[in-house]
Amino acid sequence: MRLGYFTPLAVFAVLALALGIGLTLEPRNIPSALIGELVPTFDLPPVAGRELGLASADLKGGEVALVNVFASWCGACRIEHPLLMALSRQGVVPVHGLAYKDRSANAARWLNQFGDPYRRIGLDLDGRVGIDWGVYGVPESFIVDGRGVIVAKHIGPITQRDLNETILPAIARARQR
Amino acid sequence: MSGFAQGWSTIAARAVRASLLLAVVAMAPPAHAITADTPLVEPRLEARAILLHKVLRCLVCQNQSIHDSNADLARDMRRIVRDRIATGASDEAVIQSIVARYGDWVLLRPPFKTKTLALWLGPAVILMLATAGVLAYFRRRRTKAATAPPLTAEEQRRLNALLDEPS
Amino acid sequence: MIAEIGHFALVLALLLALVQGTLPLWGAARGDGALIGLARPAANAQFLFIAVAFLALMQGYIVSDFSIANVAENSHTAKPLLYKISGVWGNHEGSMVLWVLILSLFGAAIAVFGGNLPAELRARVLAIQGLIGAGFLLFILFTSNPFVRIVPPPLEGRGLNPLLQDPGLAFHPPFLYLGYVGFSVAFSFAIAALIEGRVDPAWARWVRPWTLAAWCFLTIGVALGSWWAYYELGWGGWWFWDPVENASFMPWLSGTALLHTAIVVEKRGSLKSWTVLLAIVTFSLSMLGTFLVRSGVLSSVHAFAVDPARGVFILAFLILVVGGSLALFAVRAPALKATGLFAPISREGGLVLNNLLLTCAAATVFLGTMYPLFLDALTGEKVSVGPPYFNATFGPLMVPLIAAMAVGPMLPWKRADLAGALARLKAAFAAAVVVALITWYLAAGGPVLAILGMGLAAWVTVGALVELADRLKLLRAPLGESWSRARQLPRSAYGMALAHGGLGLVLMGIVASTAWQTERLQIMRPGETASLAGYEFTFEGTRSLAGPNFAALRGLFRVSRDGAPVAILNPETRTYPTPPMQTTEAAIRLTPTGDLYAVLGEADGTGGFATRLYHKPLIHWIWFGTLIMVIGGLVSLSDRRHRIGAPARRRLRPLAPAPAAKPAEA
C-alpha cells in the first residue's frame, strides 16, 4: 500500500509533462477542417477598378496558388502585405485575394494605396464565401494545389519565418504531386 | 461578445503570439451591439434555427454559442443556419455542413469519438476508481480491527476491575 | 523615487523570505531556539516590506506616474480614482504583487495570532510560507517587475478599458486571491505536519479556521465574478465553464472537501493522510490556476498577456512546489497513524462520501479543462470542451452529494442508524415533495429533472433547518429548554445550517433560471409591446446621452403586469472613444419571482431596434444563496472553539449531579 501514496505524484508528473509540452503549442489556432478537400464552389465579382474576379474554377487550372483572405479594415493585414507583394513580384506563387466583408470602394482604395499583389481578387461582401472556406478571422491564407484541393491553411499574418518554415515547403510539396 | 474579447485582446497585444490573437480576434468590422437578425417567417423553422444556434460555438468568443454572441461571425453563421433550414435541410444536415467547414471545434458539446473517448468516459472511470479506493479503505480498516491482538490475561483482569468500579 | 523604494522593498522582502524559508526549518530540525525564533519577526517584516512595495505601486497609479511602465500600460488620467486603485491589480505584474502581499499577510497573521502553536510547528509553517513567497518574489523580480521605468515617460496612459472600470470586476481579484492564497496556510500546515511526521487533532483545530476563512473569501470571489458576468455581458450568462473560471472553481471544490475532512481529523483522529493530501492538492490547484492564466497554455478571454518565458518559470516553480510536496507526501504520509475506527454508515462515513464526490467533481472539471491540452500534446488534434460536457458530467455528481448533505449532519459519529436519521428528516422529505408538486403545477409540466431539482433543493434547505430543530429538541421539549439549548449551541452549528441551507437556495436559483427562463428576441419600434412571462414590455424609444467618457443610447421599456406598472427598464449601448469600444448595459429588475432583463441592440435602419427581453426565474437566489453560505462560514469562524488564539479553556465546575445530556458536538 505504500506505493499507493505515490499515485498523486505520478499523476502530477504526467500533468507537468503535458503542461510543458503545452507551452510550445498554440491553442487558439484551430486547424482547418477543409485540408484535403476541394475548394468550395463560389464565384465572386472583382473589386472596383479591376477586371478579374475570383471563382472556384480559377483555382482548378493546374497551378498551385496562395489564396489570401484580407480586408481594408484589417490592421494586421498591413503587416503581411509587404511579404505578399514580394511573393507576387518575384513570381514565387500566384497570389489571389479574397476581400472579406469589405466594400468595393474601400478595398480598391486600400490596394491603390498600399499596392496590389493579387492576380485575382474576389469581393466577398457579406462574408458567406469566407464561411464556406471556414474563415473565422482575418488575415488567413490558404494554399490550393492545381486540382483545387486545399492543402494548407495559415492563420494570422504571414511572417518571414512562417514563409520559410511552413508556407514555402507546403507550396513545394503541392507542386510535386 | 466580441467587444469583451476585443477588450482583453488589448491587454494581450504584447507578445508575438498575442499579436496574432489580436489580429484574429479584434479584426472584425466595428459593430458590436446585439444585431437585428431577421428571423425566419415560419415560427417552427425559426424555433429550430434558434435551437441550432445554441449548440454551435462562436469561434471568436469563449464558450459562447452563436445564439448568445454579438460577434459578426456569429451573426453570419446564424444567417447561414437560417438559410439552410429555410431550404429544407434537416437539423443534422445543417450541423454537419458547419462542422465540415470548421471542424468539431465548432460544436460546444464535444462529440463522442475515439479522440474524446477518454474525455467522456473519464468521469465515470474516476468515480469508479475512487469508490473502489474507498471500499478498499473500509475493508482494510475492518480487517485491521478484526485482527487486533486479543487482550492478555493481565489486561483482561484490569479491564474487569475498571468495569466493576462504582462510577 | 517612490517606485525605486518599492522595488528595493521587494528585494528586501525576497531576502527576508529566503531567511524565513530556510533558517527556521533548520532550527526546528536541530531544536535551535534562536533559529526557530527568527520565523515570526521575519514573517512580519516580509509583510511590511511587501506592503510598502504594494503601496508604492498604488501611489504610482493614484498620481498617474507614467514614467512607471506598468502604470503607463494600465492606467489613464481620466479614470476615476477607484479604478485607478483597482487598476493596480488589473494587470499581470500588479496582480502578482497582490498575490505575494496576501501570502505574506497570512504569514504575518500566523506569526501574530499563532501564539498557541508549538514553536517548532509554527516555525516550520512560517518557513514553508516563506519559501513560497520567495519563489513568487523571484518570479516578480526577474520576469514581472512592476517598477520598471519607461524613458521618456508617455504623456498619457493606455489603460482605459471600460470593461475594467466596474466595481464587480475591480474587486473580484482581491477576494479571489484571499481565497487562493489563503489555502497556502493549510498547505504550509500540511507540509509542516509531514516533516514532523505527526498529525493530531490539535493540528486540525488550528488548520480549520484558516481554511474556513480562505473558503469564505474564495466563495465571494467566484460569486462576484459570476455576478459581474451576469449583469455586464449582456445576455444573462453567469457561468461558462471557461478554463480560468474552472481554475478558480477546482480549488473551491477541493477546499470544501478539505474543510469537511479536517472536521474528522479534529474530532475523531482519522482520515489524516487524506486531509494532508487535500491541503496540498487545494493549494496546488490554486497555483495551477495562476499558471494557466498567465502562460497561454489554454485559450481564454480571461488570460493575461501571453509570455512563454513567464510560463516556463511558473511551471518550474509549480513542479518544485507541487512535485516536492507530493513526493514528501509519498514518503512521509504512511507514518501518519490514524486512530479512530468508524462504520461506513456514520458521520465519518458521510464525510467520506462528501469527499469522494467532491474530489471526483474536481477531477471531472480538471479533465474537461485540461483535455484540449492533453489531446493536443499527445496527438496534435484539437478539440474544444464546452458547457454541455460539464453540465452532463458535473451535475450528476452533485445530485447524490446534495441529497446526502441533509442526512450527514443527522448521523452520529462512529456508528449510525441510517433509518433513524432518515425518519427524523421526514419534514424535509415532505417539504421536498410539496415544493416539487408546487413547481410541477406552476410550470405546467416542465422538465422532470428540473422539478426533481427543486425538490432536492428543498430537501437540503429544510433538512438543514430540521437538523437545527432536532438539536434544539424543538417541539419535543418545552420551549424554554429549546431556547436555552439554542443559546448554548455552538456557533458552528448555526454556521453549518446557514451554509447548507444557502446551497439549497443556490440550487433552486440555478434550476429555476435554467429550466424556465423565457426570452424574446425581436426588432421593436417605439410604441410596440412584447409580452413575456405574463409581463408586458412596451418599448418607448431611445434617446442619446453623454456619460463621463462615453456616448450612450438609452432605451426605455415600461413593464407592466395585468395593467399595473411594475418597472421601467433603461438598457443602454455605450460607445467609448479610447480605446474605441462598444458595450451593452443590460437593464435588470429584481422581482421576488425572478429577474426582468432587457438589452438594447442595433438599430435596423428603419426606426426599429433589435431587442432582447428575458425573464429569469429565481436567478438572483444564486447570489443570495451564496451570500448566505458565506455568512454561515463567517458565523462558524466566529465560534469560540475555532478562534485562532486560545483553545477554549473550560473552567472545571465542582462535581455536581449528572447534567442534562449535552447536544451532539458539531
Notes on the protein architecture:
The complex is a heterotrimer of chains A (177), B (167) and C (666). Chain A is of the alpha/beta class and 177 residues long. Chain A has a single domain (29-176), classed as Glutaredoxin (3-Layer(aba) Sandwich), CATH 3.40.30. In chain A, 36% of the residues lie in helices and 18% in strands. Chain B is mostly helical and 167 residues long. Chain B folds into two domains: 2-111, Cytochrome C biogenesis protein (Helicase, Ruva Protein, domain 3); 115-164. The relative contact order of chain B is 0.08. Chain C has helices at 2-30, 33-36, 39-62, 69-74, 81-86, 92-113, 119-143, 167-196, 201-232, 243-268, 272-295, 308-332, 347-379, 387-407, 418-424, 426-442, 448-471, 479-488, 491-515, 621-637, and strands spanning 518-524, 529-532, 535-546, 551-561, 564-569, 572-576, 581-585, 587-591, 594-603, 609-617. In chain C, the strands form two sheets. In chain C, strands 2, 3, 4, 5, 6 and 7 form a six-stranded antiparallel sheet that branches. In chain C, helix 11 (272-295) packs antiparallel against helix 12, helix 14 (387-407) runs parallel beside helix 17 (448-471) and helix 16 runs antiparallel to helix 17. At the B-C interface, helix 1, helix 2 and helix 6 of B face helix 13, helix 14, strand 1, strand 7 and strand 9 of C.
SSE layout:
The complex is a heterotrimer of chains A (177), B (167) and C (666).
Chain A: H1 7-22, E1 43-44, E2 54-55, E3 65-70, H2 75-89, E4 95-100, H3 104-114, E5 121-124, H4 128-132, E6 140-144, E7 150-155, H5 160-176
Parallel strand pairs in A: 3-4, 4-5
Antiparallel strand pairs in A: 1-2, 3-6, 6-7
Chain B: H1 2-12, H2 16-26, H3 43-55, H4 72-86, H5 91-102, H6 117-146, H7 153-164
Helix pairs in contact in B: 1-2, 3-4
Chain C: H1 2-30, H2 33-36, H3 39-62, H4 69-74, H5 81-86, H6 92-113, H7 119-143, H8 167-196, H9 201-232, H10 243-268, H11 272-295, H12 308-332, H13 347-379, H14 387-407, H15 418-424, H16 426-442, H17 448-471, H18 479-488, H19 491-515, E1 518-524, E2 529-532, E3 535-546, E4 551-561, E5 564-569, E6 572-576, E7 581-585, E8 587-591, E9 594-603, E10 609-617, H20 621-637
Antiparallel strand pairs in C: 1-10, 2-3, 3-4, 4-5, 4-6, 6-7, 8-9, 9-10
Helix pairs in contact in C: 1-3, 1-7, 3-6, 6-7, 6-8, 7-8, 7-12, 8-9, 8-11, 9-10, 9-20, 10-11, 10-13, 11-12, 13-14, 14-17, 16-17, 17-19, 19-20
